């Protein structure tokens, strides 16, 4: 992540504990979820560890176009109230939620601090502005689908980067409530001028998320 500061996060850091072949990535036993984690190098009394029972990958996901780039993990238990003052969930917006260009949002992760650089040991944050679909299309053309959302700055300088994929893009409503607007997906480089970060647009997949959550 480019030009960011330390911040606590409500995302779920993952550790791959299985073998390297790609088919193992879809096995729940290959993953461990950490709740409330800040430092990757060591554990904290405030963080929790959960096992993954099931992985739900969107049935239309395309690994070349990154369309429908979203997966849900079913954990073996809910997060305890011990995390209440340390990490909180972001609300799921309804499909009709308006995402206005210019809205200031935040993206967090442990990714590279510069393009081609090393990942961070400390959880980082950076502020980005939502941009219009027209501006997003001007950057990437036909690669942008209705399930995608762009955020960042035309002059570059602030962006998610390699290793931040899957991290949350959260925005705050006037009421103070935080909601999940997007999930880090792809982009050209990190913080380059005229190339915004591209995120999975959650409002276009809210119905699928609710369907998965309500399934046995």
From TrEMBL:
PROSITE patterns: TRYPSIN_DOM, TRYPSIN_SER
GO MF, one annotated term: serine-type endopeptidase activity
Domain of life (superkingdom): Eukaryota
Pfam families: Trypsin
UniProt entry keywords in alphabetical sequence: Disulfide bond, Hydrolase, Protease, Serine protease
Residue span, Peptidase S1 domain: 1-214
GO biological process: proteolysis
Protein name per the record: Peptidase S1 domain-containing protein
């Amino acid at each position: 992540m480019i030009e960011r500061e330390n911040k606590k996060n409500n995302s779920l850091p993952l550790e791959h504990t299985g073998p390297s072949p790609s088919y193992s990535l879809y096995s729940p036993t290959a993953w461990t979820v950490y709740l409330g984690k800040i430092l990757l190098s060591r554990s904290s009394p405030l963080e929790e560890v959960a096992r993954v029972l099931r992985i739900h990958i969107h049935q239309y996901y395309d690994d070349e176009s990154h369309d429908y780039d979203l997966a849900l993990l079913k954990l073996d238990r809910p997060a305890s109230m011990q995390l209440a003052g340390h990490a909180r969930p972001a609300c799921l917006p309804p499909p009709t939620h308006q995402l206005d260009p210019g809205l200031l949002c935040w993206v967090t992760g442990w990714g590279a601090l510069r393009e081609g650089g090393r990942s961070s040991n400390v959880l980082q944050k950076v502020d980005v502005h939502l941009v219009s679909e027209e501006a997003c299309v001007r950057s990437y053309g036909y690669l942008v689908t209705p399930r995608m959302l762009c955020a960042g700055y035309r002059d570059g300088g602030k962006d998610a980067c390699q290793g931040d994929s899957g991290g949350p893009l959260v925005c705050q409503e006037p009421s103070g409530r935080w909601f999940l607007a997007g999930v880090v997906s792809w982009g050209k480089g990190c913080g380059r001028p005229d190339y915004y970060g591209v995120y999975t647009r959650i409002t276009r997949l809210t119905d699928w998320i609710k369907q998965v959550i309500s399934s046995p």
